[in-house]
Amino acid sequence: MVTRRKGNSSVKYRAMKLLAFESSCEHASVALNLDGNIRARRIDGHVNHSEHMLALVRCLLADAGLGVSALDAVAFGAGPGAFTGLRMACGLAQGLALGAGLGVIPVCSLAALAAQSPHPLALVATDARMGEIYHGRYRVEGDRVTELSAPACCAPGDLPRPEEEGEWFGLGSAFAAYAQAPVCATLAGCDPLAVPTAEAVSRLAAVRGEAGIVPAELAVPLYVRDKVALTVAERLAQGKIARSTAS
């Protein structure tokens, strides 16, 4: 067992060797977690290109002198987030895990974002496009992140105020895109530039340990909503396109 301390909190987890992917937003990243020692790489603007992710994997493993088969599992940010990015992270994790006979640990991307909170109570909200946001509430104790509300999707103005008492810290792109949402005024602080990272995914996966491993073929993204884009009628109703264009 390894004990990791953060502030006054400590979390015990089984030492694991993990490869992690996170590509639920515009910034993709890869991390190699070797018994708590983490090396991570980030890609800006290439979240749809799996070859860039695989190049980083090869680099990280080569630097560590390891093959994929030497790992205990492969973790990935399961979402919610950009559909293409979620499918890519899941597909990469599955492909590498199946080839090496490993299992997969899916980690909620909102939880990975909450893990960066400087406060114990984190309200996470990311821009889901189409005039909606993904959101969730979490309690953060070191590397242990406890879900207080399941990931959901709603209109920015409908983001619910946290029910639990205490000072809440906001994280995620929705706080930049919709800074006037009523709940923003109730927060102790906010980081609208924070994004989920593969490093955070690997830490949360290590805390879950073997209990979080699922067969690679059963791993799926967490979409929360099924729609990829608005219909023409819906875009017209929201004034997104001119009626003359659609006619």
Enumerate how many helices there are, as a single number: 7
| Rg, alpha carbons | 19 Å
Strand content: 25-35%
Number of strands: 13
Please report the distance between the alpha carbons of the first and last residues: 64 Å
Structural class: alpha/beta
- The geometry reads as globular
Mean pLDDT score: 87
**What is the helix content?**
25-40%
Which regions contain 5 or more consecutive residues with pLDDT less than 50?
1-12, 227-238, 240-247
The main pleated sheet reads as:
6 strands, mixed
Secondary-structure element order, as H and E? Answer: EEEEEHEHEHEEEEHEHEHH
Strand arrangement in the largest pleated sheet: 5-4-3-6-7-13
List the helices and strands and how they pair.
Elements: E1 2-6, E2 9-13, E3 17-22, E4 27-34, E5 37-44, H1 50-64, E6 73-79, H2 83-100, E7 103-108, H3 109-114, E8 121-129, E9 132-141, E10 144-154, E11 168-171, H4 174-177, E12 189-191, H5 198-208, E13 214-215, H6 232-237, H7 243-246
Give a short overview:
This protein is α/β, with parallel strands linked by helices. The protein is built from seven helices and 13 strands.
